[in-house]
C-alpha cells in the first residue's frame, strides 16, 4: 500500500506521517510492534487465568482473532526481510509464555501430556489457513475449527500419536522463510 494511502486512511497529512515515521520501514516496525503486543498481551492475560484450560483456550481464541483482524501482517512477515530481527525478538519473548501456558494446562490435567510448545506454531499455521480459505464464505468458521482442535487437545481425548513432536531445531527449519 502506498504511503499516501496510509496517511489518507489514518486521517493525517504526509508531513505528520513522515514526522512520526521518516521511512516506510519505520511504519512497518510500528505496526509489527503493535501486533506483537497483542500476542504478548493475550499470553499474559491467559497466564493470569486461574483455570489453566480456560487461559489456554482464551489465548488461542485471541490469537486467531488477531489473525482475522490483521490478515496483512501474515503476508508482510512472509514476504519481507525488514523487521526480521523484531519478529525473532517477539518469538523469543513469546516462547516462555507459550511454554508456561502449555505446562499449566498439563499440570492441571486439562491438556494432553504429549502436546508441546513446539506444536503451537503449526497449530497457528493450520488455523491461519482455515481463516484464509473460509473468510469470504464463512468469516467465523475458524471458531468451529478451533473447537475441533481444542476438543482434540483435551487430556481425556488423548490417544497415542504415531509421531513425536518436532524438536526446536526441526521447527525452526520447517518455519524458516528465506529473506527477500
Describe the model.
With 180 residues, the chain is an all-alpha fold. It has helices spanning 3-10, 14-20, 24-48, 52-69, 71-79, 84-107, 120-134, 141-153, 168-175. Helix 4 (52-69) packs antiparallel against helix 6 and helix 4 packs antiparallel against helix 8. The model has no long low-confidence stretch (mean pLDDT 85).
Brief synopsis:
The chain has helices at 3-10, 14-20, 24-48, 52-69, 71-79, 84-107, 120-134, 141-153, 168-175.
> pLDDT below 50 for ≥5 consecutive residues: which ranges?
none
- The total count of helices amounts to 9
Helical residues, percent? over 70%
- Largest sheet properties: none
On the 0 to 100 scale, the average pLDDT is 85
As a percent range, the share of strand residues is under 5%
Oligomer state equals single chain
- According to DSSP, the number of beta strands is 0
Overall, the morphology is: elongated
Overall structural class, as computed from helix and strand content, comes to mainly alpha
Q: What is the alpha-carbon Rg in Å?
A: 18 Å
N-to-C span: 18 Å
What's the SSE pattern? Answer: HHHHHHHHH
Question: Which structural traits does this protein have?
Answer:
mainly alpha; 9 helices; 180 residues; single chain
Amino acid at each position: 500500500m502506498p504511503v499516501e494511502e496510509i496517511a489518507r486512511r489514518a486521517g493525517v497529512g504526509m508531513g505528520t506521517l513522515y514526522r512520526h515515521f521518516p521511512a516506510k520501514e519505520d511504519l512497518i516496525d510500528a505496526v509489527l510492534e503493535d501486533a506483537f503486543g497483542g500476542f504478548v498481551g493475550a499470553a499474559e492475560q491467559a497466564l493470569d487465568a486461574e483455570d489453566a484450560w480456560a487461559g489456554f483456550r482464551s489465548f488461542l481464541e485471541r490469537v486467531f482473532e488477531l489473525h482475522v483482524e490483521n490478515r496483512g501482517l501474515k503476508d508482510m512477515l512472509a514476504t519481507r526481510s525488514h523487521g526480521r530481527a523484531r519478529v525473532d525478538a517477539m518469538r523469543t519473548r513469546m516462547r516462555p509464555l507459550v511454554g508456561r501456558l502449555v505446562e499449566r494446562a498439563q499440570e492441571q490435567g486439562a491438556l494432553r501430556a504429549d502436546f508441546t510448545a513446539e506444536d503451537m506454531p503449526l497449530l497457528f499455521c493450520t488455523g491461519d489457513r482455515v481463516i484464509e480459505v473460509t473468510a469470504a464464505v464463512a468469516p467465523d468458521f475458524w471458531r468451529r475449527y478451533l473447537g475441533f482442535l481444542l476438543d482434540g487437545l483435551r487430556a481425556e481425548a488423548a490417544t497415542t500419536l504415531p509421531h513425536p513432536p518436532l524438536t526446536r531445531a526441526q521447527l525452526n527449519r520447517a518455519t524458516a522463510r528465506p529473506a527477500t
